[in-house]
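[Meeting: bench + compute handoff]

Bench side (C.D.) handed over the final construct sequence. Compute side (W.E.) agreed to return the predicted structure before the next meeting so the bench team could plan truncations. Sequence as handed over:
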Amino acid sequence: MRNYIKQWFAQRFDLEGMNKPLQKQLHKPLPKHISWFHTLGSMSLFLFISQVLTGILLLVYYRPTVGEAFESVKFIMTTAHAGWLYRQVHAWGANLMILVVFLHMLRTFLTGSFKKPRELTWVIGVVIFILTLVFGFTGYLLPWNQLAYWATTVGTEIAGAVPGIGEFTKTLLRGGSGVGAETLSRFFVIHVIVLPWLLFFIVAIHLFLVRYQGIATMDRVGEEKQPREGEGIPFFPHHVLKEGVVFFILLGLLITLSIMAPFELGEKADPLSTPHAIKPEWYFLPMYQVIKYFPKLIGIFVTGLAPLLLLLWPFLDRSREKRLFKRPVSLTIGILTISSLLFFGALGHLSEGKHTFFGKTYEFDIYGRPRPLTVHLQE
């Protein structure tokens, strides 16, 4: 039977011609410095596929209307068979995908893999990262709960402050003057139809460039030599086995987080009741906190420089060295960037709240400045 099927296809397609490039890619040797950190790209792809599959399962029950969105998510979490699990896997997958794509970019930056001739691969990677953030932003509103509603309100207000196109952008996102049914409908279409297909084609181009150009070695720009047959590390089965191990670890992590630390649905969105200290998700917290220290326009300009610099970085860093400690300027910028993200992210988390450290409670203002709480005892 197997031979008959193979013969049937062989009479209609050039199987030998199709098999040669496939075998070439499977056995294409990789540079010797390839490590477990080089599986971050595959982890990002796995999480994207996981998001698509769990998203399809959620769509079976989800209703994108103001009156039914919250109740449909509640039904998924409480009644649908295993609905709580794939809803939590989807929620945690969104967070992990943003983190893993960021770490993948960080690894590429640290190893200098963005340098000539791979500038376009880096630029497409930055676009993937930005689209992943948009995925998180648009998907956050869909459960139509209080936090999502008001976080979206704040986010679209910030977009509306951009000079020239701000008001148009805000109206385009909201579908009107306020966050409502049109906003939910637009975010649903963007999240479920536009972004998956857009990201699919961009990821396909990114993967093609990676396989076509090969993984960057640590040689200086212009002196790079790709390993020949019999040299380096074989892609199959050695590196594929690594990616398989990472796949099962990541799958186990997703399920463990879904069970041990589930996301709460909260209360249904109420436009007439504003919760205290509304904040965006963790991946927007550093930018949100930075904006507080400047007038709105200047704050937006400062935070808007980050994605622009990321896109232009391969054309700004013209040194031929790839090894990190031979690139002191890049090393300094990288350390400062990571430190500022952690610092302002922590300030954003602490701001507008009460937190206890070493038995003493502090109240943090909007800028993240602590003030000890004094207890007044009555006789």
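W.E. noted at the follow-up: The longest strand covers residues 353-357. C.D. will use this when planning the next construct.
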